[in-house]
Specification:
The chain is an alpha+beta fold. The chain contains 10 helices and 7 strands. The protein has a 4-stranded antiparallel beta sheet. A hairpin with a 2-residue loop joins strand 2 and strand 3. Helix 4 crosses helix 7 and helix 7 runs antiparallel to helix 8.
């Protein structure tokens, strides 16, 4: 985990980090593409907030590793059943995912979650139980006080943990799990204006970015200058 933290620090963009630490949130430009506008100094920027928030949540995961709060899931969630119903039986996803037999899925759920439940609890505050032969998810970690992640993405998170995390290498495994938890926390794309999403991003998530975010070099393409205010003033003067 220390090595992963150092990798983030060594990949820091000083300019972007300063921009985010001193920015003013302007508003969401496109909910369907997860784009928002922020102002820094006299410039206006278009930001892919999906990419930025994914990196922020990953960094929170590294910073608070093994020291998270928890979100209780009332009644718990049957992991295999949720993956089967929302991923494997989803007509829109069938052409995008690799088919898997029911028995193999059950085996993988046991291996990745039940057999590793001590690790899940100790490192991530994700509690796993066995009830009547079924593997049940009981809690998820609390990353930001007051922020509840989008539960509609839970099945995708569980599926990706099974299929996209390298379980053979400890460092890659921990990084992979943290990346998937981070992606789970990112607000989903919306087809139309959503005041709850706007309020959450403006009043919870971007203030967190302002406090302790290390903007990494890989985000350079996700922050685009779209206006220079002095230049705009000149345009208005001509008009």
């Amino acid at each position: 985990v220390k090595e992963l933290r150092k990798e983030v620090e060594s990949n820091m963009s000083k300019e972007l980090t300063q921009l985010f630490s001193q920015h003013t949130f302007v508003g969401i430009a496109d909910y369907s593409r997860r784009l928002c506008c922020i102002q820094y100094d006299v410039k206006l920027y278009l930001v892919d907030y999906g990419a930025v928030l994914a990196e922020m949540f990953y960094q929170i995961g590294l910073a608070d590793f093994a020291n998270f709060g928890k979100i209780e899931i009332e009644g718990g969630v049957n992991i295999k059943k949720l993956i089967s119903e929302e991923i494997l039986d989803n007509e829109q996803l069938k052409n995008q995912i690799e088919p898997i037999a029911d028995g193999e899925l059950k085996s993988l759920v046991v291996q990745r979650f039940l057999d590793m439940r001590d690790m899940w609890t100790e490192y991530f505050n994700i509690e796993i139980e066995e009830r009547d032969g079924e593997v049940i998810l009981v809690t998820m970690p609390l990353f930001i006080s007051g922020y509840i992640p989008p539960w509609a993405k839970l099945s995708l998170f569980l599926w990706r943990v099974i299929k996209r995390v390298d379980w053979e290498d400890e460092k890659k495994c921990l990084a992979g799990i943290l990346r998937q938890i981070a992606l789970f926390h990112v607000p989903p794309m919306q087809k139309s204006t959503d005041l709850d999403t706007l309020n959450c991003i403006e009043n919870l998530l971007f203030p967190a970015i302002k406090r302790k975010f290390i903007a990494t070099n890989n985000l350079a393409g996700d922050v685009v200058e779209i206006a220079n205010l002095p230049g705009l003033y000149k345009v208005f003067e001509r008009c």
